Every structure is written in structure tokens, then in C-alpha cells.
Amino acid sequence: MCRVAEGEHARPWPRTEAEQRTRELETLQRLAQATLRSLEPREVLQSALATLVHTGWFRCGEAFITGTAGLDTVAVGTCPYTDLKACALRPALLEWVREALEAKEVRQVQGWQIVPIDAEAAIAVSGGQVSRPFLNTVVECIRAAFERARLYTALKEKEAQRARLFKALLNAQEEERTRISRDLHDQVGQALTGIILGLEAALADPNPARLEGLKELAGMTLADVRRIALDLRPSVLDELGLEAALKRYTREVGERYGLEVELVARLPLRLPPEMETVLYRVAQEALTNVVRHARAQRVSVVLTAHRDAVQLVVEDDGVGFDPRRVASTRLGLAGMRERVELLGGQFRLESAPGAGTTVYARLPLKPGGRA
Hints:
nucleotide-binding
């Protein structure tokens, strides 16, 4: 429902040009003070409209911001209009506001002045007469405050997102440390314990067969240590780059788990180290999910560089799943998404029961192929 707000409408109009100019300057000062106190875009519009109506320049007005459901009223100031009359005008007023926003210019319709503040916000005022220069100055004042509030809000949202991503990254690091600790304890630790016990037995009763078994166990333990080191940070990634590292990793995954892994890589140049690390980790996590959950026969890894981005796609022919019913943390999806988004990229996963799974990661490139 429309609201009625009393203002300074009894104030007499200035009789001289000097008085008019003084009143305009007073209004601009009050407008600047009111809008500068606001750090939210909606509050800026509310403060601006209240100032214009309460200082007596206009008898009524309404402020709008375009939302997901269309024009959203953020402030209403009417005096001495009744609620009934003000509300009866709103359907036509809304259409005039849409037209002004689309045209990006001030519209004057049936006594209303529709003033776009930016592409998504406008103020509509009526019941007053102001000079075009003064109106332009008022609009610029509101626009400056509105843009400042928008930038402040965007900065606040970005800082909040950065904090969320940083927290998630720390969680991902802790999960990685937990996995490494488990691998060392369950595999390497138990194997070394077996070797020690075997050597103690061999000291008491040397047996070639026992020693041969210990040698084989030591070799397997060494392979496990190398695998863990490779999972942590393959030296080939630093020495030869992402393409070479993925070739080695996909080959080892295929041989170890009996998967048909196809790698298609088209990278004309080395990528920045942080990009190579993120893309390698995403591919690594995606292939780990294939091995653990997908029951797939074939998986493809496609890495391509475009003019403005590099894209990684990992696709399998496994059993798939419903992403809405699986927590992202269970499959490492949150970690993949956060790594990609920290570099300003885009992450997407597509899957359905019986239809396999596809992971997309796209990172932006600056001119010259740099991140």
C-alpha cells in the first residue's frame, strides 16, 4: 500500500532569483548529506526521494529498482495525495518508468518526471516545477551516491565471498592432510611394520624365501611412497608443465585401475603455475571420483586453450548420480569449485543416474595467454 509522508509543502516559493538559487543550494546540501550517509543502493534512493519531497520541490514521488520479479518499489513519498489516488496511478507509472529505463533518458508524462539513476533504478516525481539545470544537478548528485553505494555493496559481497572461499580452501587443505595421513598410516606405516617384523625374524632364522618376500614388500612400499608424493605435487608439473603431467597421471590411472583413459590436450604454451596447479587438481579429483564411484569403463580428459580462456572437461561413461542428492563435500566438488573460482573461473558439473558425469572447469586468460 502507498504511504503518506508530510513535508515542508507550506514553504512559500522564492520571489527572487537569488532566493531561488539559495533554496536550490540548500536542497543540494541536504541531498548530499542524506545520500552520503547511506551505504546501500536502496537507502540512497529512499534518502534522495525523502529529501526532494520533504523540502517541497515535489508533492509526491516513488523510487524503483529492477528486481527478479520486475520493478520493485523501494520508497514512496506522497503529500497531500490520498492513498487511493496514488495507488490508482501506479500501473501507468510503472509502464512510464520501464520506458524511461529502456530509453535511458528523463521522461515527462502527465505531470510526472521519470528520472533514470542507472540502468536498473529510477525515481519518479510529480507535483513540482524545477529548472532542467537544477534537475540535472540533482540527478548527478543521486547517481554519484548511488554508484558509490553499489561499489561499496559489491566490495562487501566480494570480501564475503573471498572469506568463504578462503575458509573452504583451508577445509580442503585439512581434508588433503587427513587423506595423506591415512594413506601413510594404513599403507606405508603397516608395510614398514611388516618389514621390521620380518627382518627381526630373519635375524633369528635367515630364510631366502622370507628375505625375497621382504624385498618385494619394500618395493611395494616404495611405490606407495612415490604415488603419495605424485599425488602431492608431481615434479613433472613444474618441469614440463600441465600437459606432460596429465599424460603421466592419466596413463598411471588407466594402468592401475584398468580404465580406458583418453587424453586430448591442446596447449600451445605453458600456463601460469597457479593455473596449471588448479587444473591438475581438478583433473586429479575428477579422476579419483571416477575410480571410486563411477564404475566407468571409459573416461576422457580434454584440455583446450582458447583466445580468452583455458578449459578442462573430464567425462566418464559411469553410473552417474543426482547432484541434488549428493553433498558436494562427499565428492570433493566444493574443493574443485573453490579452486577454480579463486582464479576467477567457472566450474560446472553435469550428471544423472545412468548417464555418466561431466566436469567442466574454465579459467580466464589475459591477452598473451596469461592468467
